[in-house]
Write a structure and sequence with these properties.
The complex is a heterodimer of chains A (about 425) and B (about 300).
Chain A lengths: L3 E11 L4 E10 L2 E3 L9 E4 L4 E4 L1 E6 L12 H10 L2 E6 L10 H14 L3 E2 L17 H6 L4 E3 L8 H10 L7 E4 L4 H4 L4 E2 L2 H6 L3 E2 L1 H18 L3 E3 L5 H12 L4 E5 L1 H5 L21 H12 L5 E2 L8 H4 L16 H10 L6 H16 L16 E11 L17 E11 L2 E5 L2 E2 L2
Parallel strand pairs in A: 1-4, 1-5, 6-7, 7-8, 9-10, 10-13, 11-12, 13-14, 14-15
Antiparallel strand pairs in A: 1-2, 2-3, 5-16, 16-17, 17-18, 18-19
Helix pairs in contact in A: 1-2, 4-7, 7-8, 8-10
Chain B lengths: L12 H15 L16 E6 L4 H13 L3 E6 L11 H10 L4 E6 L4 H5 L6 E7 L5 H15 L6 E5 L6 H12 L3 E5 L15 E3 L2 H4 L5 E4 L5 H4 L6 H8 L3 H4 L7 E3 L12 H4 L6 H19 L12
Parallel strand pairs in B: 1-2, 1-3, 3-4, 5-6, 5-8, 6-7, 8-9
The chains are: A alpha/beta (about 425), B alpha/beta (about 300).
Chain lengths: ~425, ~300
């Protein structure tokens, strides 16, 4: 392993400092070093025409281990993450066993350290068994390194339980309660967004109001408690508007959106392709435009993948039998570059901020998200914003249920440096 | 014609006329002593039924047999399906056995379309979930055209649980395609909010709709919907939306009464009404065989030299 790496001539995009200029970056002993001076024995990487940015951070990943190692392992998921330019991921708690105790958190973290491809920062369950009834041992999980708690896959159904979690979590600096916003009574049996397409496809709907009801309630409970709330994978225009107002009112709330909600609409369901079956569902063009605008203006803070690997045989089933979810780690950056930056919906620095600096801030990860300055841990990504590629299986992920399968995207990760180590070089994972 | 019949969206208005015309020439076959033509001799038709439906399965079976095809019935009970075999593996097995056409009935919307990924032959949707039942719609159109002489400009009401009805979807799309005026009638909980985008009208008042109709099409209403709180009671449903003897008096003399079966006598339709001469429910069944013969014949491209219709 080269101990010194010099990256030459890249466009350095560092939202933490507002820097956006051509330059060199020197990495030494795992950290960014002063780029001037002659350093002998450095591995020289020509980055003319490439972008260098702080490594991406994913707030919302399903790594499936422990429990469903056939779909993904911490190692395979981390490799997919590294290839996608991520240097930190936050795996959700819905594993088997569920990550509702410090013991499971320790196990997942240890698997991440062993893989050594990116930081693995587990999300803990808010309630025991994700059952929505009694609070899990949040304090013990905080001691084990957890910064975000979520019952992802479902909302905390009881406002009192959510109130207590938001209030209790105030005892711990920087701890965030994250919510999956869907009212279960309105989504029961639902397969896709409720609208014209669901009516003619004969698939039961999940109306956008099922999300908005929970967003409205959660914002009210956040107001009541002064707690720190994060809203996962927003999908509806109405939700974006509520978050915008809540932020203007000074509530401590952040929000994320997935690449697939930023790119696709419910029209994709016309072929009953189960790779487009996701929760919350893909909605209409109007919703998608509101999500794009919300991400551009900062109402939505971050892009998060909701990387959700599923076995081939599960996704090849009848539509209503297939589990919801799409993988996303390996396509997230390219999807955002192609459909938002190139399409003119936002600047490249804002895209990098939404995929790195902002999520690092939400998780309180001081080692990630920049600034790219001497002495800082060298968690960096170098990508070619112009490189076109076709999304096809196999992936580094053990699963291949990608909504982007068969699509052409622009923007390819060339190198990923994780704590100064070149874990991805020339687009290839190095371990 | 498309290779498959998965949805009414797969056929054009011209295709529909061709199907109905072809069915007309096949219907005579059912009146013969030997009810058989050699049009599909040597071809294999598989009836793949994941849901119990004796009437639709028998109708397809008779249609294929009258065309001299070899018919294999593959139903959920007693097959590998009940042992948990996936749709894909079942499809690959049928493919390996050389099925020329697969007629599929499934409780999941979209299953017939998914099936087309794995079988090379034609796929006919015999009803999928709450999506479509295109052959039912075509046999209904056949019956309407036969009895009323036209489809264009017909005023039809489809009454009942449209939300969960694959028949209502296919029939709405088909009637709109042929230039008929369709009104969906039922409690607002059982009419999709986006149904007007199908090109139909919506009414919650059956009394205001009946006097203008050429066709009054009643849908089966499952008692289970009451438990799911779509309406307060079966009694109230029958009062507000049932086709009672009293309401039949509001229909024009020439108006047909139709039902895809099986009926819930006393719920959506009074027993006496079902047995009226203007109720063409049994004709629907008879015509179903001829229409399905026509569809199999057209989709499988029955060769002329083998004798076809006149053989």
């Amino acid at each position: 392993m080269a101990e010194r790496i010099r990256i030459r001539g890249a466009r350095i995009v560092d939202p933490a400092t507002g820097r956006d200029e051509r330059g060199d970056v020197l990495v030494e002993d795992g950290r960014v070093a002063a780029p001037d001076g002659t350093v002998s024995g450095a591995l020289e990487l020509d980055a003319e025409g490439l972008v260098l940015a702080p490594g991406l951070v994913d707030l919302h990943t399903h790594l499936r281990e422990p429990g469903r190692e056939d779909k993904e392992t911490v190692e395979s998921g981390c490799r997919a993450a590294a290839l996608g330019g991520f240097t930190a991921v936050a795996p959700m708690a819905n594993t088997d066993p569920i990550a509702d105790t410090a013991a499971v958190i320790h196990e997942v973290r240890a698997l991440g350290i062993r893989a050594g491809l990116c930081d693995v920062v587990p999300v803990g369950a808010i309630t025991r068994g994700l059952e929505g009834e009694s609070m899990a041992e949040i304090g013990e999980m905080v001691e084990a390194g957890v910064r975000m708690f979520s019952d992802d896959g479902r909302s905390v159904p009881d406002a009192r339980v959510l109130r207590n979690a938001l209030t209790y979590a105030r005892a711990f600096d920087g701890v965030v309660i994250a919510e999956h916003c869907e009212d279960a009574s309105l989504t029961e049996g639902g397969q896709m967004h409720e609208g014209y397409h669901s009516s003619s496809l004969g698939l039961a709907g999940r109306p956008r109001e099922s999300e908005e009801i929970v967003v409205a309630r959660d914002l009210a409970v956040a107001r009541l408690t002064g707690g720190r709330l994060h809203l996962c994978h927003l999908s509806s225009a109405g939700s974006v508007e509520m978050v915008r107002r809540a932020k203007a009112d000074g509530l401590r709330v952040t929000a994320e959106v997935t690449p697939h909600h930023l790119v696709f609409t419910d029209e994709e369901l016309l072929t009953y392709d189960t790779n487009f079956k996701v929760n919350p569902p893909l909605r209409t063009t109007e919703d998608r435009e509101a999500l794009r605008a919300g991400l551009a203006d900062g109402t939505i803070d971050a892009v998060a993948t909701d990387h959700a690997p599923h076995a081939v045989e599960e996704k090849e089933a009848e539509f209503d039998q297939a589990p919801p979810g799409t993988i996303g780690l390996e396509t997230a950056l390219a999807a955002v570059l192609t459909h938002l930056v190139e399409a003119g919906a936002m600047s490249l620095p804002r895209a990098v901020e939404a995929m790195s600096t902002a999520p690092a801030g939400i998780l309180g990860l001081g080692d990630h998200g920049g600034p790219i300055e001497p002495g800082r841990p060298a968690n960096l990504v170098v990508f070619d914003p112009a490189a076109e590629w076709a999304v096809e299986a196999p992936f580094a992920s053990r699963s291949r249920n990608s909504a982007f399968l068969g699509r052409t995207l622009r923007g390819r990760v060339i190198h990923t440096l994780y704590r100064g180590e070149l874990v991805v070089a020339d687009g290839k994972a190095q371990r | 014609m498309n290779k498959h019949l998965l949805s009414i969206h797969d056929v054009t208005a011209e295709d529909i006329v061709r199907v109905l015309d072809t069915a007309e020439s096949f219907r005579e076959v059912g009146t013969r002593v030997i009810k058989k033509v050699p049009a599909l001799r040597g071809r294999t038709v598989v009836n793949l039924f994941y849901e119990n439906s004796t009437r639709t399965r028998i109708s397809f079976e008779l249609a294929a047999k009258r065309l001299s095809a070899d018919v294999i019935n593959f139903t959920t009970s007693g097959s590998s399906v009940s042992k948990g075999e996936s749709l894909k593996d079942t499809a690959l097995t049928l493919q390996a056995m050389g099925a020329d056409a697969v007629v599929i009935r499934h409780s999941s919307s979209g299953a017939p379309l998914t099936l087309t990924r794995w079988v090379k032959g034609s796929v006919l949707n015999a009803g999928d979930g709450t999506h479509e039942h295109p052959t039912q719609a075509l046999l209904d159109l056949y019956t309407m055209r036969e009895k009323l002489g036209r489809l264009e400009g017909l005023r039809a009401a489809i009454v009942g649980d449209v939300l969960h009805s694959r028949v209502a979807r296919s029939l709405s799309f088909a009637l709109v395609k042929m230039g008929a005026e369709v009104t969906l009638v039922g409690p607002p909980t059982l009419i999709p909010a986006d149904a007007p985008a199908w090109g139909v009208q919506v009414s919650y008042d059956i009394g205001s709709v009946l006097p203008k109709l050429d066709v009054c099409y009643m849908l089966r209403v499952q008692r289970e919907r009451q438990r799911q709180q779509y309406f307060p009671s079966v009694r109230e449903y029958a009062r507000l939306f049932g086709l009672t003897t009293e309401r039949v008096g509001m229909l024009p003399e020439s108006c047909l009464i139709m039902h895809p079966g099986p009926m819930n006598r006393g719920v959506e339709i009074d027993s006496d009404v079902a047995d009226l001469p203007r109720s063409v429910i049994e004709e629907q069944v008879t015509n179903g065989i001829a229409v399905r013969m026509a569809l199999l014949y057209l989709l499988l491209g029955g060769s002329g030299s083998e004798g076809g219709v006149d053989g």
